[in-house]
Specification:
Structural class: mainly beta
Helix content: 10-25%
Order of helices and strands: HHHHEEEEEEEEEEEEEEEEEEEH
Radius of gyration: 26 Å
Largest sheet: 19 strands, mixed, barrel
Strand content: over 45%
Number of helices: 5
Distance between the termini: 61 Å
Length: 362
């Protein structure tokens, strides 16, 4: 009977009165208080450590050649639902016809794209809570297919990511590409992180592992970042970027990359011939006007690029792109027109602000 009474007694009091548990609890509480006093913010993901330069100023995500026409049809503002048709001619990397559909709510983002040759690209993001988002990307093409699954956890002052590309265990082992990254704010201005990559292309090949380090510093009107890839089978690399906002309408960015690869020695091509060094530098600028945006970029390989986006009507946007390669004596030009066919009801809702678009987990 006494044993039954002891077994039924709550253990909460014993745990609370334990000196070791109390010390751990007080230490953790003190750590949280000091952490809050630093005023740290979320630094973003390791993958986008230089996002201001690579995704906003530079033309990497905007450049195109040939003729392109795009027709967008918004169906709803909340949730977001939109259909799109795109025609292109003489464009490198673009299909002659592309159909896409987009749906977005506060928890779900879905996007599907199908080209005239049957190639399919599907993206889906799901927000489990305010911190955790799962991203899935699938590509089905005639030559090859790809599947990637990514989980991003955004804390108050850090971001942790885990990504798998073409994972498989059906051949008696694990193969694919697995990427884990972590970026932590140490001060209100400085963040430090690392990224680990493990990959195996086939079961008859040896796995490879890479480790990269990154740092990001944010000033009042400028941001600098540095990434260093530790030496691996393909060598090592160092890249740095610098972004500065000159005025409310003008921002500039630079990027410097250095690659060190193992050299070859002898006629048999054996390793050990020293390091092969290769580097590149790029500089760009972005100008934002009242109804247009102009971007320009030049690099150390002799390429000069520019892109102008101009809104000539509330629903019509025209894009001009050009690139000149002085070393290869080549020039490329692109012209695009985008039309947004919004219904009168949606236009009235947008003007009055009656329906607010949800925070879609892009």
């Amino acid at each position: 009977m006494a044993d039954g009474k002891l077994a039924s007694m709550p253990t909460t009091g014993l745990v609370n009165d334990n000196a070791l548990a109390s010390a751990v609890r007080n230490t953790y509480r003190s750590f949280l208080e000091r952490r809050d006093a630093l005023g740290l913010s979320n630094p973003g993901t390791f993958e986008n450590i230089n996002r201001e330069v690579s995704r906003d100023v530079f033309l990497t995500n905007f450049m195109f050649t040939g003729l392109r026409a795009e027709w967008n049809k918004p169906i709803s503002n909340s949730p977001i639902f939109q259909l799109s048709h795109q025609l292109s001619m003489g464009a490198q990397g673009l299909s002659p016809y592309t159909f896409s559909a987009l749906y977005g709510s506060s928890k779900v983002f879905l996007q599907g794209t199908m080209e005239n040759d049957g190639s399919l690209v599907a993206r889906s993001n799901y927000r489990w809570n305010e911190s955790l988002i799962t991203k899935t990307n699938a590509q089905i093409q005639s030559s090859q297919s790809m599947l990637s699954i990514e989980n991003d956890y955004s804390g108050r002052d850090f971001t942790a990511s885990l990504k798998a590309i073409n994972p498989s265990i059906i051949e008696g082992g694990v193969k694919g590409v697995f990427i884990a990254s972590y970026l932590q704010s140490l001060t209100p201005s400085f963040a430090l992180g690392l990224e680990a990559v493990w990959q195996r292309v086939a079961m008859n090949s040896s796995p490879e592992a890479l480790l990269s380090y990154g740092a990001r510093y944010k000033g009042s009107d400028w941001i600098a970042s540095l990434q260093m890839q530790a030496e691996g089978p393909q060598g090592s690399a160092i890249s740095s970027s610098y972004w500065r906002k000159l005025t409310d309408k003008v921002s500039v960015g630079t990027d410097l990359s250095l690659n060190f690869a193992p050299g070859l020695s002898g006629q048999g091509g054996l390793m050990g011939g020293g390091l092969q060094k290769d580097g590149s530098a790029s500089a760009g600028a972005k100008y934002e006007f009242r109804a247009s945006t102009f971007r320009a970029q030049v690099d150390s390989k002799g390429r000069l690029s520019c892109l102008l986006e101009k809104t000539i009507l509330p629903a019509v946007r025209v894009t001009f792109a050009g690139e000149m390669d002085h070393l290869k004596q080549q020039a490329k030009v692109g012209v695009g027109v985008s039309v947004e066919a919004m219904s009168e009801d949606l236009m009235e809702q947008a003007e009055k602000g009656g329906v607010q678009a949800p925070a879609v987990p892009f």
